[in-house]
Design brief:
Strand content: 35-45%
CATH architecture of the largest domain: 3-Layer(aba) Sandwich
Order of helices and strands: HHEEEHEEEHEEEHEHE
Radius of gyration: 17 Å
Helix content: 10-25%
Number of strands: 11
Oligomer: single chain
CATH topology of the largest domain: Aminopeptidase
CATH superfamily of the largest domain: Gcn5-related N-acetyltransferase (GNAT)
CATH class of the largest domain: Alpha Beta
Strand order of the largest sheet: 1-2-3-4-11-5-10-9-8-7-6
Number of domains: 2
């Protein structure tokens, strides 16, 4: 049985070994998500990442390896590093005093298209429609339209990652994201799990996350590779 600190050192790996086992694709001991669901991969032995990534890249044009300290080995005749995103992991420590005034609902499958469109409007790039299957998504509806969401991504028996926190540009500065994150964290705590999140170093939202009860605990790097 692994501990929470152990799992947080390699969250993609343990998600694919536990809660998200059904999404796991394995090449030479390296774990990846089904690319229709998510584009993350994880490993312990970097000597295996070159052969494994050669196989996985056949299924899509790009993917991420997510690591704390390790550097993946890559076959540069087949794959090229697009960029390395210097990120950090934040772990929930205490409840904030955020007052939830909005009517926040659990989004069902009927909202899949709206979620996808909202995420791509605000944060275009890597969200897949089937990412909805990774965990609960909560939303706020105004004037009959989904205007803000907070989803769940990586998770195990011990933690759940809050992700896809997006607000439509017409509805910013109403503290919708704060309320959604707080609500999401409360729902995760009800499952006796620890809320976590990941973000880029220097993200202007980090002070907000701290006010909501999260603290920065470690670096977490995102290596984006593309087919050559």
């Amino acid at each position: 049985m692994t501990t929470l600190p152990q799992q947080l050192e390699n969250p993609v790996w343990y998600s694919l070994r536990e809660t998200h086992k059904k999404f796991a694709v394995t090449f030479d001991g390296v774990l990846f998500y089904n690319p229709a669901v998510c584009t993350f991969g994880a490993f312990f032995d970097e000597a295996k990442t070159a052969s494994a990534s050669r196989e996985y890249i056949k299924t899509r044009k790009d993917f991420f390896f997510v690591t704390e300290n390790q550097t993946p080995q890559i076959d540069d005749t087949k794959i090229v590093l697009n960029r390395k995103i210097d990120g950090c992991q934040m772990v929930f420590k205490e409840l904030s005093d955020v007052v939830i005034k909005e009517d926040i609902i659990l989004l069902d499958e009927s909202y899949i298209d709206e979620i996808y469109e909202l995420v791509w409007l605000v944060m275009p790039g890597f969200y897949q429609k089937r990412s909805f299957e990774m965990g609960n998504f909560y939303g706020i509806i105004k004037n009959g339209k989904l205007v803000a969401i907070s989803g769940q991504r990586m998770q195990t028996n011990l933690f759940v990652e809050i992700s896809s926190v997006v607000t439509h540009p017409d509805y910013t500065k109403q503290k919708l994201a704060s309320q959604l994150i707080a609500h999401n964290a409360q729902e995760i705590l009800k499952e006796n799990k620890t809320p976590i999140l990941h973000t880029n170093k220097g993200n202007l939202a980090i002070p907000l996350y701290k006010r909501l009860g999260f603290e920065v605990t470690r670096d977490m790097n995102w290596w984006l590779y593309c087919k050559k």
